[in-house]
Automatic annotation (TrEMBL):
It comes from Candidatus Accumulibacter aalborgensis. Residues 15-94 form the HigA2-like helix-turn-helix domain. SUPFAM superfamilies: lambda repressor-like DNA-binding domains. GO terms for molecular function: DNA binding. It comes from the Bacteria. InterPro entries: HigA2-like_HTH, Lambda_DNA-bd_dom_sf. It holds the Pfam family HTH_37. This is Transcriptional regulator.
């Protein structure tokens, strides 16, 4: 019986880039922002109906946000939602880290 050899290719750490999406950076940013939004919503114990009222969107759209179906949400809109939950958003631009080939966008949460 012949042995079958499988090859495993290491990823870059960015699933969207690995899958070949042209807008990989934007997709990764939206996921990071949605993760923070969902954490804020959970911490405040808000229902989807309450969130819909705060954000001014239909409840089914809140469900999409909760389930990371983000096609209808731009990064700018997600940032706005964060401010509607009484959080400040600060954007810091700094020199690129020496170990990166391109600039990096990431979302950090201050305590």
């Amino acid at each position: 019986m012949a042995r079958k050899t499988e090859t495993v290719e290491g990823g870059t750490g960015d699933v969207f880039r690995d899958l070949g999406f042209a807008d990989a950076g934007e997709r990764k940013l939206r996921v990071q922002l949605a993760m923070r939004l969902n954490d804020l919503i959970k911490d405040r114990k808000l229902t989807q109906t309450m969130v819909a009222e705060i954000f001014g969107i239909p409840q089914p759209h809140v469900s999409e946000l909760h389930n990371f179906k983000l096609s209808r949400f731009s990064s700018e809109r997600l940032l706005h939602f964060i401010t509607l939950l009484d959080k400040d958003v600060e954007i810091v631009i700094r020199p690129k880290a020496a170990n990166h080939t391109t600039g990096l966008v990431s979302v950090l949460v201050a305590a």
